[in-house]
C-alpha cells in the first residue's frame, strides 16, 4: 500500500514536470551588453546599433546593459523622440542595466550633443512568452521553489523507491 503511494507520487511529479506546471530551470533571462565590445558610444556608422540588435531575440525579463566611459547617457524614449533625437530630460546618467518589462517596441537614445544623430540610438522589439517571468519577484520565487523544495523532494522519493526495491529482493 505504501509502495503504491510512493509510486503514485513519483508519477505525479514526473507528469507535472512533463506538463510544464513545474518549470525545470532551462529558461533564464538574458543580459545583453549593448554594442558588445564597443559598449554604448558614438559608433562608426549610423546603423551600428541596429546591426547589433538584428541578430538578437529580446524577451520580457531580459536586461540591456548600457556601459560607457566618457560623457554619455541613456534615455528610453517614444518612437517620435527616437526618430527626432529629442533631448528628453529623463535620462540614466551613469552606466547600468535596464530590464525589459514589457513586450513591443522600445527606443533608447543618448541625449549628449549630437550623439543620437551620429547613431547612438537603439530600437528593439521585445517578445513576450507565456513562460517568461513578468517580474523579477516572480522569477525569484519560482527559482527558490525549484531548488529548495522540488529537487530534494524528488530525490528523496526516488531514494525511498530504490530502498524498497532493495529490501524486497
Ligand atoms: C563595462 O564596464 C566594466 C566595468 O564596470 C568594464 O570592465 C568593461 O570593460 C566595460 N565593457 C564595455 C564593453 O565597455
Ligand atoms: C556599420 O557597422 C557595423 C559594425 O562594424 C557593420 O556590421 C555594418 O555593416 C555597418 N553598416 C553600414 C551601413 O556601414
Ligand atoms: C523634434 O526636435 C525639435 C528640435 O530639438 C523639437 O523642437 C521638437 O519638439 C521635436 N519633436 C518631437 C516630436 O519630439
Ligand atoms: Cu553619447
TrEMBL record:
What keywords are annotated for this sequence in UniProt?
Disulfide bond, Glycoprotein, Membrane, Signal, Transmembrane, Transmembrane helix
- Residue intervals passing through the bilayer: 144-164
Any Pfam family: Cu_bind_like
What does UniProt list as this organism's lineage?
A: Eukaryota, Viridiplantae, Streptophyta, Embryophyta, Tracheophyta
Write down the Gene3D superfamilies for this protein, in alphabetical order.
Answer: Cupredoxins - blue copper proteins
The Phytocyanin domain, residue ranges: 30-128
Which top-rank group of organisms is this from? Eukaryota
Which SUPFAM superfamilies does UniProt cross-reference here? Answer: Cupredoxins (SSF49503)
> What is the protein name given in its UniProt record?
Phytocyanin domain-containing protein
The signal peptide annotation in the UniProt record is 1-29
Alphabetical list of InterPro entries matching this protein: Cupredoxin, Phytocyanin-like, Phytocyanin_dom
Amino acid at each position: 500500500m505504501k509502495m503504491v503511494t510512493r509510486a503514485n507520487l513519483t508519477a505525479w511529479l514526473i507528469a507535472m514536470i512533463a506538463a510544464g506546471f513545474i518549470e525545470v530551470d532551462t529558461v533564464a533571462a538574458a543580459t545583453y551588453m549593448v554594442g558588445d565590445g564597443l559598449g554604448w558610444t558614438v559608433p562608426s556608422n549610423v546603423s551600428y546599433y541596429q546591426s547589433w540588435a538584428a541578430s538578437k531575440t529580446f524577451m520580457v525579463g531580459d536586461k540591456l546593459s548600457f556601459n560607457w566611459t566618457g560623457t554619455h547617457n541613456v534615455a528610453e524614449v517614444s518612437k517620435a523622440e527616437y526618430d527626432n533625437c529629442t533631448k528628453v530630460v529623463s535620462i540614466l546618467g551613469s552606466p547600468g542595466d535596464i530590464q525589459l518589462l514589457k513586450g513591443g517596441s522600445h527606443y533608447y537614445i543618448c541625449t549628449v550633443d549630437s550623439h543620437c544623430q551620429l547613431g547612438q540610438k537603439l530600437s528593439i522589439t521585445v517578445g513576450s512568452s507565456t513562460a517568461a517571468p513578468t517580474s523579477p519577484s516572480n522569477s525569484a520565487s519560482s527559482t527558490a521553489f525549484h531548488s529548495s523544495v522540488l529537487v530534494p523532494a524528488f530525490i528523496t522519493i526516488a531514494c525511498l523507491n530504490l530502498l524498497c526495491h532493495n529490501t524486497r529482493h
